[in-house]
Write the structure tokens for this entry.
Amino acid sequence: MEFYTTHLAGLTSYLINSEICVNLTIAKVLKMGKQKIKVAILGVGNCASSFVQGIHYYTNSDKEDGLISDVIGGYKVSDIEVVAAYDINKSKVGKDLGDAIFSEPNNTIKFFEVPKTGVIVEPGVAKDGVGKFTKDIIEKVSDNDNFETSLLNSGAEILINLLPVGSDDAVKFYAQAAINTKIGFINCIPVFIARDSNWYEKFKDNGVPLIGDDIKSQVGATIVHRVLAQLFSDRGVKLKNTYQLNVGGNMDFLNMLEEDRLETKRTSKTSSVTSVANKGQGIEPDNVRIGPSDYVKWLEDRKKAFIRLEGESFGGAPLNIEVQLEVWDSPNSAGVTIDAVRYMKFFKDKNDFESLDLVSAWLMKAPAKSEKDGDVLMKLHDLTHIDK
Ligand SMILES: NC(=O)c1ccc[n+]([C@@H]2O[C@H](COP(=O)([O-])OP(=O)(O)OC[C@H]3O[C@@H](n4cnc5c(N)ncnc54)[C@H](O)[C@@H]3O)[C@@H](O)[C@H]2O)c1
């Protein structure tokens, strides 16, 4: 804001003096480009690693491959800047973000050598961020007593939540901090904030932008399964039974061995598929099983999904589809998180909070309001398209 204010003030005085000077000042503003979108990250795990690597990767090349959208509302990936990051693991806190993202137990693919960023990972507030299966791997540091002050001082306008599944108390603490500091909140994990009407209203009443819950991967098990369920529905095939069994070898899968932490993850993944099944009528709970199924350490951050749909087509004839998907889990989520950030910035600046619900419907597994993928993408494209 400061940048524009300064230049607009300059512009006014030039106006009095000469039209040429006005044109020069406008050209300078355009040349220097937009302000950066300043974000803070909660949880410097694999997803954060891919997110940070991705910003550097696309900033350092003209490539558009691998992106859903090269530009959203005028913003490129290179317009995103991480200004703060928080974790609770001694292996990451106190390190430069460029080093912390490659520190153990992170084990996702390294596709860009991130230089020193100047952002030092600060302690967060642990609460229930560490589960039964990760407690021997994560060495906790002391809690940050001044989290909100640190967040405010960072200049971040968006806070991205990438905590482990089941961190209910921690997520609620950070969501409240986002409200208190009026910083937009993108909830990439399946602790229900956007889907919880109390939290949803709290954000709305306080004029704080919210996108959530639980990021859909770019081409992950959920979207593949959802597209197939939609296909059955659109082509009149009754979906009778279905499963999606997922295995992987990252900390997320280790943590999700704890079934108690997993309830919302199952609900989120299941509802993303059943909400489009059988023309929106869904499927009997006994006939659907979706969720993380085991931890296979040697897979590291690769995930395998086994998906089966059993249907009934014309005249009751059986029709079955079986699919296997293998993918690096974390880049798959980061490719969507970078879109969420740019959509939030665009709609926040237009004070259009309603459209953020469309963004959640497009990018999240458990949005407050569900919509058909094709419809919502068209609407978002129309809303964010800027003529050159
Ligand atoms: N494709 C995907 O990978 C994908 C898709 C959808 C959702 N998600 C969700 O994104 C989240 C992050 O996934 P990940 O693979 O990066 O997990 P991860 O376990 O690698 O990273 C989580 C990080 O959070 C830190 N942490 C724990 N408690 C904390 C607290 N209270 N404050 C600050 N930091 C804390 C941990 O130390 C760790 O560094 C998970 O909940 C996952 O389910 C991932």
